[in-house]
Amino acid sequence: MSEHTYETAVKRLQEIVKTLENGGLPLDESVKLFEEGAGLAKFCNNELKNAEQRIIALEDIDGGEQ
């Protein structure tokens, strides 16, 4: 997988979902797109978890006060 940002990964994932929903692709191409989508979903999930951990760490540094 090439270097992605969260935003580019989400955009590509949306394209894959739309393509798969439209159907008409050969099975092997559909499976390849599904695999790419699964990898992108995992990447996005990891990015969200990392962002959440950073926010929690910042809140801990600030004493949880806003």
Plain-language structure description:
The chain is mainly alpha-helical. 79% of the residues lie in helices and 0% in strands. It contains two helices and no strands. It has helices spanning 6-22, 27-61. The radius of gyration is 17 Å and the shape is rod-shaped. The model has no long low-confidence stretch (mean pLDDT 92).
List the defining traits of the structure above:
66 residues, 79% helix, mainly alpha
Instruction: Show unreliable segments.
Output: none
Strand content: under 5%
- N- and C-termini, Cα separation: 39 Å
Q: Can you count the helices?
A: 2
Question: What is the helix/strand order?
Answer: HH
Shape: rod-shaped
User: SS-based structural class?
Assistant: mainly alpha
Radius of gyration: 17 Å
- Count the strands? 0
| Overall pLDDT confidence | 92
The largest pleated sheet is described as: none
Helix content class: over 70%
